[in-house]
Structures are given as C-alpha cells and as structure tokens.
Amino acid sequence: MSAIIPMKDIVSLCKRRGFIFPASDIYGGVNGFWDYGPLGTELKNNIRDLWWKSMVITPPLGLDGAPLQIVGVDTAIIQNPTLWKASGHVDGFSDPMLDCRETKLRYREDKLIVLKSKDGQGHALVFHEDAEQDTIDARLKKLARGKSSADFETVSLPEIDLSEYSNLIGPDTKKAGTLTEPKEFNLMLHTYLGAAAGEDNKAYLRPETCGSIFTNFKNIVDTSRVRIPFGIAQIGKSFRNEVTPRNFIFRSREFEQMEMQFFCDPKDDIKGWFDLWKNYRKEWWLSIGLSDENLNFHEHTQDDLAHYAKEGVGAYDIEYKYPFIAPGFDELEGIHDRSQFDLSQHEKFSSKKMQYQNLQTNEWYTPYVLETSAGLTRGVLAVLCEAYTIDENRPSGMYMNCHPSIAPKKAAILPLVAKDGQPEIAQKLYMEMREHMPVDLDIKQNIGKRYARQDEIGTPFCITIDPQTREDQTVTIRERNTMAQKRVHLDQVLGYVQGNLKYS
RNA sequence: GCGGGUGUAGUUCAAUGGUAGAACGUCAGCCUUCCAAGCUGAACAUGCCGGUUCGAUCCCGGUCACCCGCUCCA
Fold first, then answer.
1. 3-state secondary structure of A287
2. For strand A461-465 and strand A411-415, is the pairing parallel, antiparallel, or unpaired?
3. Over A343-397, what HEC string results?
4. Is strand B within 7 Å of residue A241 (CB)?
5. CB–CB of A123/A143 below 8 Å?
6. Strand B closer than 7 Å to the CB of A24?
C-alpha cells in the first residue's frame, strides 16, 4: 500500500524536471490548458505508441480466435458542423443556463416557467416546468400577498425581459432578484471559418475523436478491405468547455484521447465482445505499470448512461485512484456500448447509407458499435501519480518508478569521473545506444548527484564507466528501484537494457 | 458560474510601508570519489493592472492563475 502523494508535489516535480508546464506560463497561464515539456512529451508519446501497438498493430484475437482487424485514422479537429448536430452535441448541451445567487442552484432557462400577476403588481414567481400544483399553491399562499392562482398568468422564462429579472423570485428561494441572466452553456469550443465571423460559418472543435471515425465508416469499408467485425482507432486532441478545469491535467479544456470504435453485427455476441474489450483494456493499463489496486471498474447506472447508451450491454469506466480523489476513483477510460446510435444518426443527417452488407445473406444492417475511449492525458497523469515514490534513503528523497517501457529516458550513461578516458568511452556508448532508444549522457558533477537526477525523472538504468572499464571493458548498470549494480561487458549493455524494457 | 483560500528565484519556503534572504535545483570553475547529490563562484523572484502614499512586494480595488468546497463534467 503506497502513500498518497499530494498533487502539489506531483505538479512541482513536473514543473521542476520539465514534464508539464502551465500553458503560456510567462503570461500567467490559461485556465484549463497545459504544455508538455521535453520529458512529458516523451512520456506521452510512449504511452500513445504502446496503445497504438496494442490496438492497431497487434490487436487481440476475436471471439472466434482469429486475429482482429483494427485500422487507424487521423482526422481533422474541425469537421462539418452537421456532424455535431447528428451526434447530439450541438442541441443537447448548449441550453442557456442561469444561476440563483442565493441558493447556488443552476437551472436550464427553458425548463422554468414564470407566474406573473395579471395586474403587473408584486413579484413574479418562478417554478420548474414540472412543479406540482400543490407546490405552486403553497408558494403562492406564502409569497403572493393574498393573491390566488387566478390572479396570475403563466409564461415561459425565455419570454421574460431581462429588465424584469430583479422582480423574479427563484424556484428555491423567497427573495426576489437572485437569478442571474441566462448564459449559453457551450459544451463545445467553437470558432469561425474564414475572415468574417457569423453564425453562417460557425464551426466546432471536436469534443471527442469518435465523431469523425463514424463519418469515415463508409470510406473505410469501401477502401480498406476490412470486414466486420473490425475496429477503427484514432488518437488525437479534443476540446471541451469544462465549467471548472480542475486537478492539474485531469480536467482540462484541451485533452488527448485514444479511441477505438468496434463495429460488429447486431446479432453477434455483443456481451462477449464487450467483455473482451473491457478486460483487454484493463490488462493494457496494467501492462504500462498501473497497479491493480489503483484501478477500478465502475459500471454506469441507468440514470447516468449517456444518451447513446440507454439500451444495450451498458457502460463501464476504468477508473484510477488519483491522489485528488483517493481513496475514491475517477475516470481513465470508458468502455461503452454505443449501439447503432451514431451510424443511424449520421445516416439520417447525411442521407448516406451507413450500413453494411452481410455477403453470405445479402442482408444489409447498421453495424453495432462498442467503444473504448481512453484519456491519453489522463493516462499520463495516472502514470505520474503511480510512479512517484517516496524513498528517504536516497539523496533525491524520491524516485519515479515508471515502467521502463514508458520511461522518457531508458538509460543514462555516466562516466564516474571526467578524465582518464572515461568520457570518451561514455560518448562512444552513447552514440551506439541513442540509435535504439532515448538515452542521456551526463558527464558533469559527481556521480551521486547524477544518479539523483536520473531517479527524479524515472530513468530505469544508469550505466557507469569507471577505472575498471579500461581494464576489462565492463561497466556497472545501476537499477533504479533497488539501486543495485551489476557489471556487464560493454558489448552487452545495449542488449541488457533492451531486454529489460518490455512488459513482463 | 458561485463561495473560501493562496500568489516572493526553476522548486520549496523566509522577511519587510524605505537596499528582498535561505535551501535545493541550474550554470561555470575546481576536485576525482559509486549515490548524507563534495568545494568555490555566478545568474535568476515579489503574477498582472490600477489606487492610496514622499515611497507599496507589504495597505486597497480590479484582473489572472493555482488550491479547497459547490456547480458542471454527452
């Protein structure tokens, strides 16, 4: 059981060693955006590449034991805005919202009704549109100064002029004038295409990478010789207007996803496929070094299922025990049943046939979709949290215990002293090794300092050239977690390190 | 979006209405030693804008960012 590391320690290590910086740091940053520094970029790329390998290059065997086909795409962040109308993102999540300053409650403007007195005197009362008559009567009795419901007319809130807001009593308060003016809540970030800004050329930055996977379904079936069941994978940036960016890179407005949409026959064993992906994806997180005790499956209840997943085999999140929520868990990846929702929607909105033909039966059908949607940037955070290890017995006081397969630097080459021909041997080894993996060559300062520096950035192996090297061509290899050393011949160093990089 | 807190060097922290310090890190030189990251030296900071004041890093206002609690998170 490892200790919970405060987020601020992780954030400051990231800054100090060049993993992650606030975006536009010199201007004071910008809420919800982060820049990846030299080591953070290596780390993120490593996680990204391993995902691609496990999903696209070497996907698992299917239910029948045959290798699955997963193909990749890399689509534009900006797509035709109709795509987001079809997906439900434009209309579903851009309703004007207003707040009550008194109760701190938030309402959708179109869900509220107003009881306005017919003589224009006194306060107007605001209710939820589905408020019970009993509730309305009770509040009128209390707040309407002798008037009865017959003295009021009902109007919807959007019809109320802003100048009248000071006269409104909110649904959950007794005071007038506590409601803020409605503001549009935009889930999606938008921009305008072309020089002139206007509603005609409004476009959206994608809120998820899967939208354009679905719109490419037909192109891929027509050109890529894939046959159902198969998957389409994509890694890329997405954007979302989070109300409150929070918890370092966990909830940010620009983030990166690793998604795969799996298309199968609706008559196929959906539950079987779903379980296959669910387990395969968890195994993958374990394979890059997250520990089982920090991972959790969370099954969505009917109430919190997304609009596309109300039916079907459900939705599971793979969750991680991030320090800011521990001992609880928060989302890392979603394994969701998207049913035939997306392809049906796109067929409706585009008037293009988004179906697939079973060549045995000549039957056309809309494929059934299962989604694995992992957060790459959330993965980086989970890996950083998992790796941060306190160790008071070493100079750095801590080390980053990240799996060698994702470590930003695989090895550091350190001549014990900067003389006696040691730097020359070190540089020769460095030139050889850097052809195969990211390695550091560090000659300055004493050896303890250099080990400490490598511990802080999670380098799994430190290779030290010492006086004995010139005698018998051996070096020491120091293992990061144990600090134990063994002597290895120079010719075998590369092989030794390579042999220890993979998941085992 | 609301409420509360915080903002001093790359990091972690001091101090002050009148010349802003330390540790670690970084860089240079020295040393040559397998990890209490040695020795000497150097560079680097009061988030931003405005107000009060002879003078503001300190007091006040605004703003931005971060943290906590709500809200939000298809």
1. helix
2. parallel
3. HHHHHHHHCCCCCEEECCCCEEECCEEEEEEEEHHHHHHHHHHHHEEECCCCCCC
4. no
5. yes
6. no
* The model's pTM: 0.87
Q: Is the dihedral of CA A401, A407, A408, A410 positive or negative?
A: positive
Strand A368-375 and strand A330-339: pairing?
antiparallel
Instruction: Report d(CA A399, CA A255) in Å as an integer.
Output: 27
- Measuring from the CA of residue A307 to each C1', which nucleotide is nearest? B74
Domains of chain A: 7-91+190-295+320-331+343-386 (3.30.930.10), 94-185 (no CATH), 399-500 (3.40.50.800)
- Of A293, A385, A402, A321, nearest to A8 (Cα)? A385
Please provide the DSSP assignment of A153-166 as one string.
Answer: EEEEGGGS-GGGGG
Closest residue to B27 (CA, C1′): A444
* Band of pLDDT at residue A104, cut at 50, 70 and 90: low
ipTM given for this complex = 0.91
Q: Is the pLDDT of residue A1 over 50?
A: no
Q: How far is the CA of A22 from the C1' of B54 (A)?
A: 40
